[in-house]
Structures are given as structure tokens and as C-alpha cells.
């Protein structure tokens, strides 16, 4: 078996003549926690969507576990890949338990242990019978993560999952995800525009601009300014904020 | 009122059947079309545009429009497509119900948060699963609101089906309007309104069940709806072979005669249904197609309008000609003339010293003729005028009620009248004789459908009426229904007329 959980080979995707993803090649190793950062419209969400065929590359290939996903059944593929998004996308007419159990139900597998799935993301099993609208934003996103993990896939794709949450919730949820990543042996790809979040949570940061990868480095390398001008510009903000915060403490 | 209530059950049954069939058809068309439209904006524009256009056509006009359309279709297919009755009513109501269903299905589907649809794809739903598990339940409350609107509209508009010869709760409404029997109008209106309210309530229950995710509520609502539908349709289970449908055009004399015929047939063991308020052109076609079994026509109308003849033969020759034509062509039967005419005539006040139109002609240059609004433009007037060389000092047109008052007050010295009009008897007017035979004959004649033309028992039950209804009695009966005070129902008038027939 290939060591890469996910690989892009010269993948391109255009919308109305504009390249969202422009001839990208990338390998993501099994077990790694990767951040995709970059300004809005840089192609990071599209790149993520190519991985479970929510979108299809115009040219090039995408491989999951070494297999070209163009040959795979998209329905089967998606059921085996966890996907979490900013808008959460819980089904409002289904209970928390039904939302979490949807993938096994669709696939005809045995029902999930909802209490365990809730506990795993730090929620009480009392919430199982509630509707999403009865939960806070942070609780909803925890359910969203529990739903994504219920398919037992080892690849977790997260598209700005904390974008709509307050800073405290973001932080605790980030820690939860990091722990789940470790405990479950996942390969996690996190799309974010928050560089500080990327620096603190992940092992590898890929910076995108205009559909291309402009930097690909570990957090330490990025902070020390070794990853090129685009990356430096993005890192400058949290680094400056950290300095000012440190100054305030003195 | 009890008579009004008594005739409701079979009308409710056919009304409910029509509305339910139209709703079912509209759902069968509207749900998939709405679904396809929600996915393709181009199709949505076309579908909504068409449904919106249909909605701007008044309900009555839409029903009327289907008559020539279906006639043309029938001609194209070599016959067999009924242009009257259930089919045109069903099609018009279905088209009418389409807009609210389409609009709300599309709005319901397009109103779903795109993030939820993306989530449905991302968890690996097939398009079919996505529709069943996500789109349908989320669009359902909005779609149900449209279905409720459509159901209420359809039940209301189904009253118009009466005008194309399909029995509905419009029957008592249109009949009551014509003969100013407000209890009939009210009974039809209230029954239709109650039907709409109950349906709306039950659909609302289903909608609440869907919205609040309480399946039991939806099932109770649906169960009650189906139960109500079955209960309402129970009267339709009567054996159709024994049921005779009696047609009537839209004026009092026709209503009275229909009840008289009905009483005779009931006595002979038939179950009787009425289809009243038929347009003049519609009635004969309904007879031909078997939608109605029997009705009273007027020889002159059939002769000129249906047979397309322009000559004015004597009475016997015209009746013979009609009988031969009917047996040869449309396979319907002329049972016989009832014995009176409802023709155009000229009438004067009693004691005017005139008995015939010839008498009138000598005095006419000093007199004023009062006429109803169309008489002076009709061929009958030209025929009389030319035959007797009539020249009045003046002619004035009135609405019928004012025409009789003008004669009473002396503003007019002679008036045009219908020979069986009840006001002739009430005002003791003299109907002037027509010695030259210039006025075409409008004998009331009893006609039977192709099927009943071979039904000996049926014919035997009605033959006693032939040539046994006197014009004086018909006038009195008409007046008892038409007058402003102490009105009789057509049924009561028919009973009285029956007692005067002595056979």
C-alpha cells in the first residue's frame, strides 16, 4: 500500500476560464495533520473538494490510498472520507443521533454507538434526541465532526470548520480535533485562513495563492521566515500580534 | 330548505370525486415537474410562466375553452372524446391547481440551505437518497402549503363544473341564482365552503405532522382525509343502470319540467339524478353522448340551431322532420311534443279589442311596441313584421321585467313575450294569434338519449306527458316559481303541474 493517504498529480480545476486549482501536485503522508492556508479564492477549498469528488479535476489525477479516485464509485468514496464544513451542514430535520448515524445507515452498516460517538467529541449523550437547532454553534460543529468520523474513514477533510465559532470555542474544538487525529490515527487536512490556528494545530502548512502552492513547510520553518514571501506575509500577522501581546504582559 | 339539503349528498359525492381527481392529477404532474424545475431554472421559468398564464384565465372561461378543444381533439381521433362533463372539468381544475403546487414545490426545494445539500453529497447520499431523506422532508412544509392552497381553490372552482354539465355543488348555486331561490344558493355555497374548510384543516394537520416531525399526526390527517373521501363518494355506489340523468337548461320552465319528468320516472322505479343549468348548445350534445338521458327541447331551436334549417314549415311537418332526422343521424329519440309552445309571441292588455296579429297591424301606426332587448334584432321579429306589414309608431326595448310594467302603465301598447311565460297568466294578457303562421314553432318536445330510446319501460313512463301539458298550466307553474312573493320551488310547481296533467 502506498504511504500517501492522498496525492494530487498535476490536478487543475477551472471555473469559467479562471483557474481555481492550477496544475497542483501534492503528496500527503498517512497520519499527517496538514493545514491548507491562503487568502479567499486561492483554491484551497476547491483542492479539498477534489479529494472526495465533490468536485472533479479538469486535468490531472487525485489518488486516495494510491488509487485514482476517478475510477472509484463517488458514493462509496465519500462514505469512507470524513468531511466537515464551516456551515456545519447538519440535517435540521434529523436528531443529533440520526445525523451521526447517517453514513452507516446509508451504507447499510450496523448502527453506530451514538453515546460513544458523542463522548468522543466531548458531548453528553443526553443530546442524542435533540434537533440541531436546539444546540449551540460549538455543539453543532462537534456533532458535525462526530458525523464525519462515524463512517470510520481514516481521512478527515475539514473546510474552515471553526470559521463561524467564537475564539474560545475555536480553541477548545481545535484541541479536540487534534486529540481525535492522534487517537484515531487519522490523516487530517484542515482548510483555514487563520494562520495562528494552522501554526498551533498542524504538522505541515501548505500556502496557496491563485490556485498554486506557494509554500509548503513545517510550522517552525514558516515562523522563522524560510518559506517564501507569500508565507511570510501570512505569518507576519500572528507573529506581530504575539509580540504585542507579550509586550502587554510585561 | 329541506329540499335543498336532500339533493346535496349525490352532488357532494361527484363534487368531491372531481376535486380529488383533479388534485391527484395535479400532484402527479406538479411534483415531478416542480422537482425538475427546481434543478433547471430554464424549465422553471417555462413551467411557472405557463401555470401563471392559466391562472389569469377566469375559471369559467377556462372550462368553456376546453369544450371546443376537446371537440377538435375528438374529431381528430375519430370521436369518442367527451367534450362535456367530467373530462373538461377535470382538465381545467388540474391546470388551475398546478400553479400553487408548482410554485411551492420549487420554492420549497430552492429554499433549502445549500450547505445542507452539500452535506448530503459529502456523507455519500445517492441522488435518490438525497431526495428522499433530505430534499423531500425539508421542502415538504412549503410544498404542503401550496397543496393546501390548491385544494381549497379546486374545491371552490369545482362548482363551475356545473356549466359544462358535470354535477357539482354548483348545481344548486346556479339553479338558485336563476330562479332566485337563495336557500338553494346558500346550501351549495355552504356545502362547498365546509368541504374546503375540512380539507384545508386535514391537510394542515398533515403539514403540522411533517413540520413537527410527528409522523402520527400526518398519518391521522391522511387517514381522515381518505375516510372523508370514501364517505363523500358513497352515494356514487348506486347501480348506474337504474339511474336516469335528467337535463335542464337554465330557466324556470326547464327546472319545473325536469322535476316533473323525474317524478314520473321515480314512480316507474328509476333512480333519478338531475343535471341542471345546461347551456342551450350544450344540452343536445349531452343527450347525444348519453351524459343526460332525457330533457325538454324546443322544436324551433333544434330546427335552426342544431339541424341548421332556415325554412319555417308548419307544426306537424317540423315535428316529423325532427323525428326523422334524430332517428337517422344522432340516434336519439323524439318521445313527443308536450303540448305547449314557448315561442315568441305578441301580447296586449286584456280588453284592447284585438285577438290576432292581423288586428294589431291595422292599429299599429298609432301604437308603441315594447320588446325585450334582443327581439327587434331577431329573425322572428322580421318574419312577423314582413308577414303582417307591421309599422308601429315607435318601438322600445326593455329588460323583461320592465317590459311587462311598460305594458301595464301604458308606455307600450303591445309587447313581445314568450308564450309560456307565467306573467302572461298573472297579468291576464291576451296573446295574439298568428293566422298566417309567420312565427316559427317552438313546441316543447321531450327527447331521449340513444340508450333510453330503446328502453321501453322508460318511454312508457314518459309518454303520458305527451300532448298533455296545457300552455295555461305551464304559465301558472312558471309564474309560481318566478314571482317575487310566495315563491314555489320547481319541485312544488312540478307537483302541481303533475296534478293538472290528469294522466
Distance between the termini of chain B: 30 Å
Distance between the termini of chain A: 53 Å
Q: Give the integer mean of the pLDDT values of chain B.
A: 86
CATH superfamily name of the largest domain in chain B? MetI-like
Describe the model.
The complex is a heterodimer of chains A (250) and B (503). Chain A has 250 residues and is of the alpha/beta class. Chain A has helices at residues 44-49, 74-79, 96-100, 102-107, 114-120, 137-149, 167-184, 195-201, 219-223, 229-249; strands spanning 4-15, 18-29, 33-37, 59-64, 67-68, 81-85, 155-159, 187-191, 204-209, 212-217. The mean pLDDT of chain A is 91. Chain B has 3 domains: 2-237, MetI-like (MetI-like fold, Orthogonal Bundle); 240-341 and 441-501, Periplasmic binding protein-like II (D-Maltodextrin-Binding Protein, domain 2, 3-Layer(aba) Sandwich), CATH 3.40.190.10; 344-431, Osmoprotection protein (prox), domain 2 (D-Maltodextrin-Binding Protein, domain 2, 3-Layer(aba) Sandwich). In chain B, the strands form 3 sheets. In chain B, strands 7-6-8-5-9 form a 5-stranded mixed beta sheet. By secondary structure, chain B is of the alpha/beta class. Chain B has helices at 2-6, 8-39, 41-56, 59-76, 86-110, 114-122, 127-157, 170-179, 182-211, 215-233, 252-267, 280-288, 299-306, 315-328, 357-363, 379-388, 400-409, 422-426, 456-462, 471-482, 490-501; strands spanning 243-249, 271-278, 294-298, 333-341, 344-348, 368-372, 394-398, 414-418, 430-431, 443-448.
Amino acid at each position: 500500500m502506498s504511504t500517501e493517504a492522498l496525492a494530487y498529480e498535476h490536478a487543475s480545476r477551472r471555473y469559467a476560464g479562471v483557474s481555481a486549482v492550477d496544475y497542483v501536485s501534492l503528496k500527503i503522508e498517512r497520519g499527517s495533520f496538514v493545514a491548507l492556508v491562503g487568502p479567499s479564492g486561492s483554491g484551497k477549498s476547491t483542492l479539498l473538494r477534489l479529494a472526495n469528488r465533490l468536485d472533479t479535476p479538469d486535468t490531472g489525477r487525485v489518488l486516495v490510498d494510491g488509487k485514482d479516485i476517478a475510477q472509484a464509485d463517488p458514493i462509496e468514496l465519500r462514505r469512507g472520507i470524513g468531511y466537515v464544513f464551516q456551515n456545519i451542514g447538519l440535517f435540521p430535520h434529523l436528531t443529533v443521533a440520526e445525523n451521526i448515524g447517517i453514513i452507516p445507515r446509508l451504507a447499510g452498516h450496523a448502527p453506530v454507538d451514538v453515546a460513544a460517538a458523542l463522548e468522543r467529541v466531548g458531548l453528553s449523550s443526553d443530546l442524542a434526541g435533540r434537533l440541531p437547532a436546539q444546540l449551540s454553534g460549538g455543539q453543532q460543529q462537534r456533532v458535525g465532526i462526530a458525523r464525519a468520523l462515524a463512517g470510520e474513514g481514516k481521512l478527515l477533510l475539514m473546510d474552515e470548520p471553526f470559521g463561524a465559532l467564537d475564539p474560545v470555542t475555536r480553541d477548545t474544538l481545535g484541541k479536540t480535533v487534534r486529540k481525535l487525529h492522534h487517537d484515531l490515527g487519522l490523516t487530517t487536512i484542515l482548510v483555514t485562513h487563520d494562520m495562528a490556528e494552522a501554526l498551533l494545530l498542524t504538522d505541515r502548512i501548505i500556502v496557496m495563492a491563485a490556485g498554486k502552492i506557494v509554500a509548503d513547510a513545517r510550522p517552525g520553518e514558516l515562523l522563522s521566515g524560510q518559506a517564501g514571501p507569500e508565507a511570510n506575509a501570512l505569518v507576519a500577522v500572528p507573529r506581530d500580534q504575539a509580540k504585542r501581546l507579550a509586550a502587554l504582559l510585561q | 330548505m329541506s329540499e335543498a339539503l336532500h339533493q346535496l349528498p349525490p352532488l357532494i359525492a361527484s363534487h368531491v370525486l372531481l376535486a380529488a381527481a383533479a388534485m391527484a392529477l395535479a400532484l402527479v404532474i406538479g411534483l415531478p415537474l416542480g422537482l425538475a424545475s427546481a434543478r433547471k431554472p430554464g424549465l422553471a421559468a417555462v413551467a411557472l410562466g405557463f401555470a401563471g398564464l392559466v391562472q389569469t384565465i377566469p375559471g369559467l372561461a377556462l372550462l368553456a375553452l376546453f369544450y371546443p378543444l376537446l371537440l377538435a381533439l375528438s374529431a381528430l381521433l375519430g370521436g369518442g372524446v367527451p367534450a362535456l362533463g367530467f373530462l373538461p372539468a377535470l382538465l381545467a381544475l388540474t391546470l388551475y391547481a398546478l400553479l400553487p403546487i408548482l410554485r411551492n414545490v420549487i420554492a420549497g426545494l430552492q429554499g433549502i440551505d445549500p450547505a445542507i445539500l452539500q452535506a448530503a453529497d459529502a456523507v455519500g447520499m445517492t441522488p435518490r437518497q438525497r431526495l428522499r431523506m433530505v430534499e423531500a422532508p425539508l421542502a415538504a412544509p412549503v410544498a404542503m402549503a401550496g397543496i393546501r392552497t390548491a385544494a381549497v381553490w379546486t374545491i371552490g372552482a369545482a362548482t363551475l363544473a356545473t356549466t359544462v354539465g358535470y354535477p357539482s355543488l354548483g348545481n344548486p348555486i346556479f339553479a338558485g341564482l336563476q330562479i332566485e331561490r337563495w336557500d338553494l344558493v346558500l346550501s351549495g355555497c355552504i356545502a362547498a365552503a365546509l368541504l374546503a374548510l375540512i380539507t384545508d384543516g386535514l391537510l394542515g394537520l398533515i403539514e403540522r405532522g411533517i413540520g413537527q416531525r410527528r409522523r402520527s399526526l400526518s398519518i391521522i390527517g391522511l387517514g381522515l382525509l381518505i375516510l372523508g373521501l370514501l364517505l363523500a363518494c358513497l352515494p356514487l355506489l348506486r347501480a348506474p343502470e337504474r339511474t336516469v340523468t335528467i337535463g335542464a337548461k337554465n330557466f324556470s320552465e326547464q327546472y319545473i319540467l325536469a322535476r316533473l319528468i323525474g317524478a314520473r320516472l321515480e314512480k316507474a322505479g328509476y333512480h333519478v339524478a338531475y343535471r341542471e343549468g345546461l347551456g342551450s348548445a350544450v344540452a343536445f350534445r349531452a343527450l347525444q353522448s348519453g351524459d343526460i338521458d332525457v330533457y325538454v327541447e324546443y322544436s324551433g331551436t333544434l330546427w335552426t340551431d342544431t339541424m341548421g334549417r332556415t325554412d319555417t314549415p308548419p307544426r306537424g311537418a317540423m315535428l316529423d322532420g325532427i323525428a326523422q332526422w334524430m332517428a337517422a343521424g344522432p340516434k336519439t329519440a323524439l318521445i313527443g311534443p308536450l303540448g305547449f309552445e314557448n315561442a315568441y309571441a305578441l301580447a296586449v292588455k286584456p280588453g284592447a279589442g284585438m285577438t290576432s296579429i292581423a288586428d294589431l297591424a291595422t292599429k299599429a301606426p298609432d301604437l308603441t311596441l315594447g320588446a325585450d332587448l334582443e327581439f327587434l334584432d331577431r329573425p322572428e321579429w322580421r318574419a312577423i313584421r314582413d308577414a303582417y306589414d307591421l309599422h308601429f309608431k315607435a318601438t322600445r326595448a326593455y329588460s323583461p321585467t320592465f317590459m311587462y310594467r311598460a305594458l301595464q302603465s301604458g308606455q307600450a301598447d303591445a309587447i313581445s313575450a314568450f308564450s309560456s311565460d307565467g306573467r302572461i297568466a298573472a297579468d291576464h294578457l291576451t296573446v295574439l294569434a298568428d293566422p298566417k303562421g309567420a312565427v316559427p314553432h317552438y313546441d316543447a318536445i321531450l327527447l331521449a338519449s340513444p340508450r333510453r330510446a330503446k328502453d321501453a319501460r322508460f318511454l312508457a313512463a314518459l309518454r303520458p306527458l305527451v300532448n298533455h301539458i296545457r300552455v295555461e298550466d305551464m304559465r301558472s307553474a312558471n309564474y309560481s316559481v318566478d314571482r317575487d312573493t310566495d315563491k314555489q320551488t320547481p319541485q312544488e310547481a312540478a307537483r302541481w303541474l303533475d296534478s293538472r296533467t290528469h294522466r
